[in-house]
Design a protein that fits this description.
Helix content is 35%, strand content 22%. It contains 9 helices and 15 strands. It has a 7-stranded mixed sheet with strand order 9-8-7-10-11-15-12, sandwiched between helices. A 4-stranded antiparallel sheet has the order 2-1-6-5, with no helix packed on it.
Length: 343
């Protein structure tokens, strides 16, 4: 009895699936089109940015255009041969060398742009996006743009409904960044400004703001005016003395939740039988200082870190001890009132 019931259920399910498939086929016939391929969105199409990886690990970033030709030391590949292929396909140059067709990652987009300045490393860009708490729809200000490496990461994070307002005072840097963002297909999410920030920003109540400048502590008031209360602030500097100046400025400008971080990433050789670190690694690049603007007119210092409070208390105590010693010295007339030296 149980076997017959199971068989009946299976037959019913099979009939249901067959009916569903037949319904899809009928719908396709009615519309004059085939059922949509589930891999459709993952097929390359004209104007896509794609990555070709060679056997030696070299990576080539290119935008697919019908009729164009890709040249390398391993041979030529027609763009038309790449259009319509699924990502992950192995293709061959006219010399027979294999290349892997992939969708470019954010790392590829950041590191393979034209540059006339030092660009941000992907490891730092990821931490900046995290510290600024960016998501789709966020409004974020960046100063300065440089070659646009960090701008790419910011735009990638806030798309499709957010916006990056990026300021660059140098005209040559501005033009390079504009070309890079256009090549990466992200310019529509960025408002580039070829302007100084000495007089402040044109935006207000933005969600986040990042300063990639040599002296960010000089622009903290402008940053406060542009940020919404409790918004997210970050600044990038390469040396510890710059961090110290920035920390002093943040404390005197009513910022709280202050942190200083350095991001180090060590890669490993992906060999299962002899897994070990690479011989080289990207070490120090920048110090990332993040903070939040607060509204506390009475006592903004109450929100400093506990380590900062302990240091302040110790400095106050040292000053009081020094004052007491100076008073005793004055009252004694400069005489040595200490204990006599032991024989």
């Amino acid at each position: 009895m149980e076997e017959r019931e199971k068989e009946q259920v299976l037959n019913t399910d099979a009939d249901g699936v067959s009916g569903d498939l037949q319904g899809l086929a009928n719908a396709s016939s009615a519309t004059g089109s085939e059922p949509q391929d589930q891999r459709g969105p993952f097929l390359t199409k004209p104007d896509d940015l794609v990555l070709l990886v060679t056997g030696g690990g070299k990576r080539h970033l290119l935008r697919l255009q019908s009729g164009r030709l890709f040249h390398s030391n391993l041979g030529k590949v027609q763009h038309d041969e790449l259009i319509g292929l699924p990502y992950g396909t192995t293709v061959y140059s006219h010399l027979g060398h294999a290349m892997l067709l992939l969708e470019p990652s954010l790392d590829d987009r950041i590191t393979r742009i034209k540059r006339n300045t030092q660009i941000i490393f992907p490891k730092d860009a990821a931490m900046i996006v995290r510290r600024l708490s960016l998501r789709a729809g966020s409004r974020v200000i960046e100063a300065g743009t440089g070659s646009g490496g960090l701008t790419i990461a910011l735009a990638w994070s806030v798309a499709p409904s957010g916006c990056v307002f990026s300021y660059e005072v140098r005209d040559d840097h501005y033009r390079v960044a504009q070309a890079n963002l256009e090549k990466m297909g992200l310019l529509s999410y960025v408002e580039l400004r070829n302007a100084s920030i000495l007089d402040g920003f044109d935006q207000s109540n933005v969600d986040a703001l990042v300063l990639d400048l040599r002296t960010p502590w000089l622009f903290l008031e402008q940053a406060r005016e542009a940020l919404r209360p409790g918004g997210f602030f970050a600044a990038l500097v390469p040396t510890t003395n710059q961090v110290s100046e920035l920390l002093k400025g943040l404390e005197s400008s009513a910022f709280a939740d202050i942190s200083v971080e350095e991001v180090l990433v060590r890669s490993y050789k992906p060999v299962p039988d002899r897994l070990r670190p690479d011989e080289s690694m990207v070490g120090h690049t920048v110090f990332l200082t993040s903070a939040r603007p607060i509204v506390d007119a009475e006592q903004p210092g109450r929100w400093l870190s506990e380590s900062r409070k302990r240091y302040q208390a110790r400095k106050i105590m040292e000053e009081r001890i020094a004052e007491e010693e100076a008073k005793r010295e004055t009252l004694s007339g400069g005489l040595n009132t200490g204990r006599p030296r032991l024989p």
